[in-house]
Amino acid sequence: MIFKYLRTFVTIVEQGSVSKAALHLRIAQPALSRHIIELERELGLKLFDRVGRRLLLTGEGAQLLGNCRSLLGYVSSLGEQARELRSGGQGWLTVAASPGQIETVLSTFLHGYAQRYPKVEVKLIEAVGDKTLDMLDRGEIQIGITAVQAEQIEERGFGCYAAPPLQLLAAWHPKFRLDYGAAIEIGRLAAHPLLLLDSGFFARKTFDAACRLAGLKPIILIESQAPHTLLALAEAGHGVAILPSVVRIHRYKLRTSRITYERNPLLIPLVIAWDKRRALPRFAQDFCELLAAHMRKISLHSRRSAPRASARRRDLGLDPRTPICT
Fold first, then answer.
1. Is the distance from CB of 17 to CB of 54 less than 8 angstroms?
2. Do residues 1 and 39 lie in contact, with contact meaning Cβ atoms separated by under 8 Å?
3. What radius of gyration, in Å, describes the C-alpha atoms of the chain?
4. Measured by CB atoms within 10 angstroms of the end CB, which terminus of the chain is less buried, N or C?
5. CATH 1.10.10.10 fits 3-84, yes or no
């Protein structure tokens, strides 16, 4: 079975049409059609049904798709391993993370990593939740920093380093009549308009699950992919922003508290993940280990620096008792 036939099959499924696959692979459409014909002949199965101008995956094709992707991943890993053996500490590394992780964690990590691996080119891609895992599965990235349950990582055959969990925070303008302190029960937010991340964020899924447990139906003013859009609206007094603790909130004149349900903080699990089917070069393995240590250091520093936050509150013109989270 020729490798390029399998690649054509998987690419047509992912791109949705032969024409789009031809553009993606930079191969003429007739050649791709011949690839599928030869692959179907060798397998003795029909992989696609043609409905009008569309190609629809058959049941047999759908069952073979996962194994084809795995086989392509293993073949790709051979090339990656060969490049690593040739280059040593030289290469490229594609990393996906949420905007908040890029702003707070990677912005403070990459200079130190570059000093250790000056010949490694790191490319960053914004992605959250399941999208990050899908990109890992397709080999579009090598490392993903994402909020996800450990069960999802295991089910998809990924490896991971656990990072310190994030907390879910509420941020609001002082005009809202909310008692503030280190924590606020989720039920006290029900009467206020909420500024939420969209459903692609694990932080949003965590908040929605807590609302269901508490029997609450939130009043949603906006759902956004941009955390700082929510903070700007909160600062202008339009509602209460619900965000993970990785977002830098100290730039805004807001009161903030950890959100709790039955006095338990709402935690968001965080991992640094990779696809175990693909061999990671040494510099990528070190990236994961060094980044996990860096994230633990940031988390520890945040806890230790909490008593000094009153000075920052005064600088922002806030009541000294107003909690500020970073």
1. yes
2. yes
3. 24
4. N
5. yes
**Three-point CA angle 175, 181, 185, nearest 5°:** 90
Structure token pair of residue 148: 């996800």
d(CA 232, CA 95): 28
pLDDT band at 311 (very low <50, low <70, confident <90, very high): very low
| 29, two tokens | 């459409």
Neighbours of 176 (CB within 10 A): 17
Task: Please give the torsion angle defined by the CA atoms of residues 66, 70, 76 and 80, in that order, rounded to the nearest 10 degrees.
Answer: 130
What span, in angstroms and rounded, lies between the C-alpha atoms of 53 and 39? 21
The H-or-E segment that residue 16 falls in is none
Whether 99 and 129 have beta carbons less than 8 Å apart is answered as no
**How many angstroms separate the CA atoms of 207 and 40, rounded?**
47
pTM of the model: 0.63
Could you give the angle at which helices 3-15 and 18-25 cross, rounded to 10 degrees?
A: 120
b/e burial code for range 279-317 (CB count within 10 A of at least 16 → b): bbbebbebbbeebbebbeebbeeeeeeeeebeeebeeee
Q: Is 35 left (phi over 0), alpha (psi -120 to 50) or beta?
A: alpha
What band does 220 get if pLDDT is binned at 50, 70 and 90? very high
Domain 88-164+269-304 has CATH 3.40.190.10: yes
- Per-residue pLDDT averaged across 233-251, rounded? 92
Per residue in 95-131, pLDDT (tens digit) is: 999 988 999 999 999 999 999 999 899 999 999 888 8
Residue boundaries of the structural domains of the chain: 3-84, 88-164+269-304, 165-268+307-315
Which two structure tokens, joined as six digits, stand for 90? 């030289």
The whole-angstrom separation of Cα 132 and Cα 140 is: 10
In whole angstroms, give the CA distance from residue 178 to residue 174. 8
| Residue 170 banded pLDDT, cuts 50, 70, 90 | very high
